[in-house]
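Hi,

I'm pasting everything inline rather than attaching a file, because the server keeps stripping attachments. The sequence lines come first, and each chain or strand is labelled.
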Amino acid sequence: MPAYYATRRMTGTSSSNTWARNRNDVRHSSKIILGPVSHTITIVLIVLLTGLIFLTQSTKVTNYDVEIAKVDDEIVNLEAQRDALAVENAKITAAAADEDKNQVATTMVDANSADFVKE
Amino acid sequence: MFMSRRSRYLLMQVVVLAAFFVAVVRLFLVQIVDHRKYVDAASEMRVSKYSLIAKRGEVYMMDGQNATTPVIMNERTWLIFVDPSYVEDKDQVQAQLTNILGEQMITTWDKVWRDMTSGYVEVAKHVNYETVTKVKEASLRGVGQKETWRRVYPAGKLGAQLLGFINAEGVGTGLEGSLNDRLSGENGMLKTVTDVNQIPLSIGDENVEIPAKDGENIVLTVDENIQRKIEKILKNRMKNNSAITAASAIVVNPNNGKIMAMANYPTYSPEEYYKVKDASLFINRVAESPYEPASVCKTFTYAAAINEGVLRPDDTYYNKGYTYVEDRKMQNALTNTALGQITFRTALDYSFNTGSIEALRRLGGGSITKAARVKLYNYLTNNFGLGKRTGIEIYDAPGIIISPEEDEGNAVRYANMTFGQGMNLTMVQVAAAFSSLVNGGKYYEPTIIAGEMKKGAFYKNDDKQAVRRTVSEATSAQMRSMLEEVRTKEVPRSGDKVGYKIGIKTGTSETYDASGKYTSDVTIASVIGYGRTKKSESLPDYVVMVRLDGNSLLWGSLDAVPVFTEISNYLLEYLRIEPVK
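And the predicted assembly:
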């Protein structure tokens, strides 16, 4: 039998130790034993890794925000251009209307065709 | 002198405990007592608040039956400011901004650099997109830009007094003022964590966004083409007659109360309102300037008498050219015309004051009793809505009609009121009341709003319903026949298009001289009328009222009627009203 496991039943010293009857019969123990320095280094590494993950993710979000801000800026610029064009269009249309060249004015039918009417 | 080892140990314990106690107390103060203070300070450092500016609603006019055209728009502009405390290179900022902004600079550089600790100096307002882009591209430290809006009037001076403007303090005239609540919308708010470049970040749980609620885009009932035509007509008329100092006109659809045009001349450019030196140009005289419309009001007197059953158009009375009311002699403008027994039609044709006074007498059973005055007062105010605000959505003056219960509401005043003196009315009131007189007796509150523009689509309001009956249909029909006779007999109708029925009534109002007495030397000429097809059962398609203020004697029939005729003939064509043989 290998030295690194033992049956618990064999550890009983009293006939009253029947509580262990349904427990695992085998206990494994590692051949590698970590000391306090190794433990500390491991924990520090885990903390650093977690921090790194947090930083990369939060930076990623921030990067998206910067991209969103750029897109928003672009939207504002495009809207400004659209508004300026709409105003220019309205001014040109109004100027044309002033010259009686707008759509309604040009499609008007002269009612003088009623000249045949006699009272 | 030396402390024992045990004592030193105890002392050390006390010192350590005391230090620990101090640290605990300090932590308690910071974390518990001043918790809110430090949380707020931290929040202030990383959280920014922005006001989300609501877009002011645009205003449109009708362009035909269903199309619309913008008459007030918004232009996105920017304000450029300098924060001297952040500026590193003054010369560079000054040189580059001077080059980019040029004439748009609203201050001098001496003023900008006067206080280097100052945090905010505006250097240019309402710069356009191209200019602000150049400023941004220059990447000047200490120079910033803020988005703003500017009202633009693409149609220039069109409908200036009706549309109005809103000044820097947010006080508006015309529609801009009266509809400010609907146009202005509600600003929103953005509270967000930002980075060092003030870019909003989505991290954190303190971000709040309340979107701005933009103002309504309002569509007016006013038709741009009619408005433009009428303004041209008024302008030309004033150009050809130097005696006219101001001209106004209103066109109403008598069958629903919709205002089709509301014009004033002389006018101004709302975009450059600050250049106007005469503030009276801002007044929409059609709605805000009450006056004595004179003989135009005879129509209301006759309508009241006919509706009460005390007078028929073909009834007669004896016309002496004058009549006495108490001790006052009141005479006709044409004192020697059509003397003797004449019909009330004839009296209206010649606009005899004696005829309208006789109508008032008949309301009182033969004399101007208090009962007669009360009847006329009720008709004028309760039925026709004169002397009070009409309910139109723009600023309108109430005007004045003296009650017969007051001392001044005596027989002489009421005799004067029968031909439109001794009371102040606005053109909107008269046009709305006259509409009811000729449309079958239904009074519609005049309205200027046709609907709303949402995402580029026009949503029409339902037509308003008549709010009351002013006279019976029979009375209305009799009034139409009288008014159409006025047009055919008293005024030459050579200018009218053939195939239509036109009814009018003119008015020539005396004005007050320096001593407060009526003078005929300076008058206001008015005319109100309508047009319809010749079918007997047809109702008028439009009502037009014209007012010409003069610096000498102007006549309703000679000066105002030609303006009416020109407008009326245009409307007959524009509205495509079918001529009938």
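Chain A is about 55% helix and 0% strand.

If the labels don't parse on your end, tell me and I'll reformat.
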